[in-house]
Design a protein that fits this description.
The protein has helices at residues 39-58, 61-77, 79-88, 93-113, 117-121, 152-165, 180-190, 206-215, 229-239, 257-260, and strands at residues 12-14, 17-19, 26-29, 32-35, 123-124, 131-139, 142-146, 169-173, 199-202, 221-224, 245-248, 263-271. By secondary structure, the protein is an alpha/beta fold. The strands form four sheets. It has a five-stranded parallel sheet with strand order 9-8-7-10-11, sandwiched between helices. Strands 5-6-12 form a three-stranded antiparallel sheet. The chain has a two-stranded antiparallel ribbon with strand order 1-2. The protein is globular, with a radius of gyration of 20 Å.
Length: 274
């Protein structure tokens, strides 16, 4: 008997829950119907991301590393599904397998750095007084990202992992092309130990949401995959409104400097001999 396949409904992921856009709008992609997120959806995601910063940043680096490693374990267990999704989206079988395995390896890599980057990038500074002077990297807060369309799953994992490794939370706008594998990654997040609100995933149009993402006054940092000079100029101007840290995405191998791109240096003075 012939039958109609059951097509997957892709929802946005906010605060650890799968939701439809508050506007009810959708758009069609090769993977299926995607929610067209609105400004209200983004504001909702920002609210839960901000609320999650305190608890997530208070966890030990070792515990965050355990959680990232658990994400790698879960993605490893479902790699066949993600490989098939990437093939459905147009990747060759070789490209799909390479991308999914690299995504798993990225998670393992950053899991290992969670309790080590502070040792590498902290410092005891020489001062001409009776003090110890320490500089230590701390999470910057809420990071808003726009992930690229190329190698969408690997790019998404490669953005999320270094952002949350130090204790930041994030809101990520997924590629307009509507990669189902990136939205499916929310299922990994949902059933993992990542607390709700630490990672929030939206689908929608960059042209509609970019002004709101870049001008929101509670955003601490931006990591944006933008091609056009006009979009980059808008991002720079809006980021300057409250001095957000702005980084434009460039494809690179995983490295600990991507963690420090979203940290702030806290310096402490401690008297000696009093």
């Amino acid at each position: 008997m012939s039958r109609l396949p059951i097509l997957k409904t892709y929802k946005i992921f906010i605060g650890g829950a799968f939701e439809r856009s508050e506007s009810g709008r959708t758009f069609q992609t090769a993977s299926g119907q995607m929610c067209r997120s609105s400004r209200k959806d983004f504001r909702n995601a920002m609210t839960v991301a901000r609320a999650a910063v305190g608890g997530w940043s208070a966890r030990s680096g070792y515990n965050r590393g355990q959680i990232l490693y658990r994400l790698a374990e879960m993605l490893e267990a479902r790699k066949a599904q993600f490989i098939q999704e990437r093939i459905t989206e147009g990747a060759t079988s070789g490209q799909a397998e390479t991308e999914v395995l690299a995504s798993i390896d990225h998670l393992v890599y950053y899991a290992g750095w969670c309790d080590k980057y502070t040792q590498v990038f902290s410092a005891v500074n020489p001062v001409a007084s009776s003090h110890f002077n320490f500089s230590v990297p701390e999470p910057t807060g809420v990071v808003v990202a726009i992930s690229p369309a190329a190698s969408p799953l690997l790019s998404l994992v490669g953005m999320i992992a270094p952002i949350i490794a130090s204790g930041n939370t994030c809101v990520v706008l997924l590629p307009e092309s509507g990669s189902g594998s990136t939205v499916s990654f929310a299922e990994i997040l949902d059933t993992s130990d990542v607390p709700g609100g630490v990672v929030n995933l939206l689908t929608g149009y960059v042209s509609e949401l970019l002004p709101h993402l870049t001008s929101h006054m509670d955003v601490n940092a931006l990591w944006l995959a933008l091609e056009s000079a006009e979009d980059r100029k808008m991002a720079q101007e809006n980021a300057a409104l409250n001095v957000k840290r702005l980084t434009f995405y460039e494809e690179t191998d995983p490295n600990p400097y991507l963690i420090t791109d979203f940290t702030e240096i806290k310096t402490t003075w401690h008297p000696i001999g009093f």
